[in-house]
TrEMBL record:
SUPFAM superfamilies: TPR-like (SSF48452). The lineage of its organism: Bacteria, Bacillati, Actinomycetota, Actinomycetes, Kitasatosporales. This is Tetratricopeptide repeat protein. Pfam families: TPR_12. PANTHER family: HTH-TYPE TRANSCRIPTIONAL REGULATOR RV0890C-RELATED (PTHR47691:SF3), REGULATOR-RELATED (PTHR47691).
């Protein structure tokens, strides 16, 4: 039995906020409480309020503001020796680093957060930090390295009845199954995640699960209309909660669904919009995926082979720099798919 989803990153004077609170509202209230805490001189409250501000900025795609806020949270926590609050700030900073494509930094910060969480006796921040490390490895394609960690975290979350963490773990494992071709298993896990999220009133988690389901339905069942309907349902939540990153990934997946259905004229503006969204929030992984989709779409619409090959070469170099091996493999597959292997590659 799972309890109602909670948002442990909203602490102190902000505990009334829920996992479904609009990020614009979180930012406004967090900023107000942060100013009050600074005036009162309470460093513990500064740390807690700055954490919420950092998370709201991060999820809204405000990279520089999020970076300043998590560091303020950490400094305030350190000034009073609050190890648990320091762990939460490091978790936020590590998650932001992963979002920005600084994967080595993300691993370091998240490892420090997990260690501090354990030393401070905060099992939740420890679990969130380990989950962040697992997700960082997963998006790099290190499935063997992080698969067991994902499974252990899922077991721990199930045992505690922690819905939100269970949903995250299920979605991470499901994505690995999807990427290795185990579509039936992946769909079952995404569906379970969606069901748990719905019962626990975790709208964000459900939106991500619906996106995963749409992907499988499109690939395995070749049912674009059902996939698009799932994405439309998820998009409503993304817009209502101002989930900028989730919305951009939703749009990128909509482009994928249209591309797979050979609806290239429809896919092109969707990929272009997603690409602009990712660039605005400075999220290099999402940008790379949207660029890849757009390159493939333009090729299907008649782009010359040399131009397509040059675009894929540049994208490969970019992915090598940020260490996204799985996405890099997708570029190599695109070369074969588009018939540009050996053209312009260097």
């Amino acid at each position: 039995m799972y309890s109602k989803a909670s948002a442990p990153e909203y602490q102190g004077a902000l505990t009334s906020l829920s996992v479904n609170s609009s990020l614009v509202d979180v930012l406004a209230e967090g900023t107000e409480k942060l100013r009050a805490a600074e005036l009162s001189g309470s460093q513990r409250e500064v740390s807690r309020s700055a954490l919420a501000v950092a998370e709201a900025h991060r999820r809204l795609g405000h990279v520089e503001e999020a970076d300043r806020a998590w560091k303020e949270s950490y400094r305030a926590a350190r000034s009073v020796g609050d190890i648990g609050a320091m762990a939460w700030a490091l978790w936020s900073g590590g998650t932001l680093a992963r979002q920005r494509g600084a994967l080595a930094l993300a691993r370091r910060l998240l490892a420090l957060a997990a260690d501090m969480g354990e030393r401070g006796g905060d099992v939740v921040v420890r679990g969130y930090s380990l989950a962040g490390m697992a997700e960082t490895g997963r998006i790099q394609g290190d499935y063997l390295a992080v698969g067991a960690l994902h499974e252990r975290l899922l077991a721990e979350a199930r045992k505690r009845g922690e819905a939100r963490h269970t949903v995250w773990a299920l979605e991470g494992i499901a994505q690995m199954h999807r990427n290795t071709g185990s579509y039936d298993t992946a769909l079952a896990m995404f569906e379970e995640a969606a069901g748990i999220a719905e019962r626990a009133d975790d709208r964000r988690g459900r939106a991500w699960a619906l996106r995963g389901m749409a992907d499988i339905v499109s690939v395995r069942d070749q049912d674009p209309e059902r996939a698009l309907a799932l994405l439309t349902e998820a998009e409503v939540t993304c817009r209502e909660m101002n989930l900028s990153s989730a919305l951009a990934y939703n749009h990128k997946m909509r482009g994928n669904v249209l591309f797979r259905a050979s609806r290239y004229e429809e896919a092109r503006p969707v990929y272009e919009a997603a690409l602009e969204e990712f660039r605005t929030m400075k999220e290099p992984r999402g940008e790379a995926l949207a660029r890849l989709g757009l390159v493939k779409t333009l090729a299907r619409l008649g782009r010359d082979l040399a131009g397509t090959a040059a675009d894929l070469d540049e994208l490969s170099r970019h992915l090598d720099r940020i260490g996204l091996r799985h996405t890099r493999d997708m570029v190599d597959k695109a070369r074969a798919e588009l018939g540009v292997e050996g053209i312009g590659r260097r």
